[in-house]
Amino acid sequence: MRPVHDVASIRAAEEALMARMPEGALMQRAATGLAATTAALMRETFGRVTGLRLAVVAGSGNNGGDALFAASQLARRGVSVDILPTSDTLHPDGLRAAQREGASIRAPRRADVVLDAVVGIGGTGPLRPAAAQIRDNVDAELTIAVDLPSGLRPDTGDVPGEVWVADHTVTFGTLKPGVVLRPDICGDLHLVDIGLDATLPRASIHLVEREDAGRYFPGPGFDDNKYTRGVVSIAAGSTKYPGAGQLCTAGARHADVGMVRSPVGGFPDVVAAEGRTDAYVVGPGLADQGRLHTAVSQALASGRPVVLDAEALTKVAAGPVVITPHEGEFARLGYSPGTDRIAAVRAAAAAMGVVVLLKGAVTVVAAPSGEVFINAHSSPNLAAAGSGDVLSGLMGGMLARHFVGRDPEHVEMARLAACAALVHGQAGALASFPATSLDIADRVAAAVAWAAD
What we know:
Blueprint: E1 2-4, H1 7-18, H2 25-46, E2 53-58, H3 62-75, E3 80-85, H4 92-100, E4 104-105, E5 113-117, H5 129-138, E6 142-146, E7 168-172, H6 177-181, H7 183-186, E8 188-192, E9 205-207, H8 210-214, E10 231-235, H9 242-253, E11 259-261, E12 279-282, H10 289-302, E13 306-308, E14 321-323, H11 327-332, H12 341-352, E15 355-358, E16 363-366, E17 372-375, H13 387-403, H14 410-430, H15 437-442, H16 444-452
Parallel strand pairs: 2-3, 2-5, 3-4, 5-6, 6-7, 7-8, 9-17, 10-11, 10-12, 12-13, 13-14, 14-15
Antiparallel strand pairs: 1-9, 15-16, 16-17
């Protein structure tokens, strides 16, 4: 997992670190990392560094200083540097360093690469009209945001107006919530280590990655049997929505779990009979209110991990429960993501006493304690009816596998839920376009193998 910190924590950590270092040393670390990453991206995009034109669109603050010092290093490697100020004042030492290497302030013109260094984490509000005009005139093939794209709010990912969309974002010290939540604006992320780990507090927000998901798929051991690998029971599907039960059951079958119990037919390895269970999934397509009430009551009374989705979301009760609403279902529960998705999910989890997974292009999961796990590994193929049913089944299987013989705990359930979303995203990515949810279910096994590799 990669830690994610808010602006207040980053500011305090930077001040504490700067107090231990010579003046300007922290900026030099950031600039060197930015220059190295920019050069690598130049080679990747153009096959060379020397002879390219770089436009540095710089504001008056330290973000502009980072970019100007980086530009001075790139100029020494044969890059032609144009400085395009968005303020009457620029970082004086950074400007002098860049100009010593031949950079010059000039009117905007076409460039190969542009560094967006208008504002950093201290910036508020949208991209100003003057900066937007520079962006449009430069029209670079490769856009690199310095720390975060200008116009993006660092703590929330909210965009209150005009924003500078980047191909890549080079961020310093630690990931920011807004950067993680908006890959559509930030592009590919590159984290530069400036030594901030020494002064940052423990993170309460985490970005899950492939390796994190892999730990939930240990594979069968020498002494394992179907029960030691966990049993998941699924209550899903109805005459009104028969496909939901099929998809949910299909999602669970390849979750490295020992047994799947489900009334859904068509799978010779699935057991219809009730019995010992380590985790439950209730709700997808379960339109029969009598069956729904019985299934929810049984699952909640068991004390085992429970996934409640779709129709079951109206019957949420505090306990070892994960709920998986999309935004419409989240609204029906009385919540709205608003401009701060993380805060909204945290509030819902704390109020209901369950783990809340809010679906979306980026998935946000919160435990009642406030611990948050984010998955940004997704696929547009998941925008299909029934894909959420596959996720619920996969997650239920993972919960059964992980918590067999142990008591469920909210924070670990939240981490696992985010990892289930990551594997689900990989299944969507592996499914060929145009993909249906059945295609996604068919790729769960390959996605689990990818995570476990």
